[in-house]
Amino acid sequence: MTSPDAAQRRPTEENPVSTSPSRAAVRARSLSKVYGSGDVAVHALRGVDVAFTAGEFTAIMGPSGSGKSTLMHLLAGLDTATDGQVVLGDTELTNLDDTALTLLRRERVGFVFQSFNLLPMFTALQNITLPCELAGTAPDQAWLDTLVDTLGLRERLTHRPSEMSGGQQQRVAIARALITRPEVVFADEPTGNLDSRSGAEVLSFLRTSVRELGQTVVMVTHDPTAASYADSVVLLADGRIAGTIERPTPEAVLAGLDALRTVNA
Ligand SMILES: Nc1ncnc2c1ncn2[C@@H]1O[C@H](COP(=O)(O)OP(=O)(O)OP(=O)(O)O)[C@@H](O)[C@H]1O
What we know:
InterPro entries: AAA+_ATPase, ABC_transporter-like_ATP-bd, ABC_transporter-like_CS, ABC_transpr_LolD-like, MacB-like_ATP-bd, P-loop_NTPase. This is ABC transporter ATP-binding protein. One of its GO terms (molecular function) is ATP binding. Residues 26-263 form the ABC transporter domain. Keywords: ATP-binding, Nucleotide-binding, Transport. The protein is an alpha/beta fold. It has a domain at 54-73 and 107-264: Rossmann fold (3-Layer(aba) Sandwich). The protein is 36% helix and 24% strand. The chain has 9 helices and 10 strands. The strands form 2 sheets. It has a 6-stranded mixed sheet, with helices on both faces. Strands 2-1-4-5 form a 4-stranded antiparallel sheet. Strand 1 and strand 2 form a beta hairpin. Helix 4 packs parallel to helix 6 and helix 6 (166-178) packs parallel to helix 7. It is globular, with a radius of gyration of 18 Å. The termini are far apart. The structure holds adenosine-5'-triphosphate. Adenosine-5'-triphosphate binds at residues 35-36, 42, 44, 62, 64-70.
C-alpha cells in the first residue's frame, strides 16, 4: 500500500497548512456549500467532517439531493466551498488560486465519470497517456504495463473508443485516471452506463487498484451492490454525514439507506 507515500507526497511548498499525521488522503472539515442566496439558497452541504483513508476504497451514498456530487466536486477541487476546508494530502485547497487548482487536478487526482469521457479520435493508448502529455512528462512504462495488463487492455491499445464496448472504454478511463498515480481517484457513478457484468468487472478493477496497486478510490454510487465492493460506505443525508458502514454488504447498505429514509420521512 502506498498510503504513507500518498500522505507525504507533495510537501507544503505552496501551502503551509498540514493535516495531522493520519492516513487521510483527502478530508473535509466543517465543509459547507450553499448554491444561490436569499430565498432560493440551497444548502447542499451543512458542515461535513469526513476523512477518506489512503489506500482504501470508499463509497459515498445517500438519497438523491443529499449532496454526494457536491461533496465529491469539492474534494476534487472542481468547485469551491462556501465555508470550511478541503485538505488533499498536506494541501488545503481553499488557499489555492485557479491555476494551482488546475495543476492539482491534473497531477494529484484522477477522475472516472459515468460517461467515460474518452477522446473519440484518440486510440486507447493515447487516451490512457493523455494526462502525461498534458503534464509534459513521459509515462512510467512499467506502471503503464501494469495498468494495461491488470485491466486486460493489451489487445485494445490501438482501438478508438467507437471500436470498444462500454466496459472496455471504462477500463481505459480507469487506466487514464491511474496513469499519474494520483493521490485519490474520484469515480462518479462509474458503472451507471454499464450492464451488470461489465459493471462488476469495472468495480473489481477499482478494488484491485486499491488492494494490489495501493491506490485510493472515492466513488459516488446509487447502487448497493457497487458500494459493496468498497472497504467502507459514507452515508450522506440532507447535506450531513449520516453514518458509515464498514465492510459493506449489499444488504447492509440497503438497510442503511432504508434507515435514512425512515429518519427523513
Ligand atoms: N449548481 C447548482 N445550483 C443550485 N443548486 C444545486 C446545484 N448543484 C446541486 N444543487 C442542489 O444541491 C443539492 C445537492 O445536490 P447534489 O447534486 O450534490 O446531490 P446528489 O446527492 O449528488 O444527488 P443525485 O443523487 O440526484 O445526483 C440538491 O438540492 C441540488 O438540487
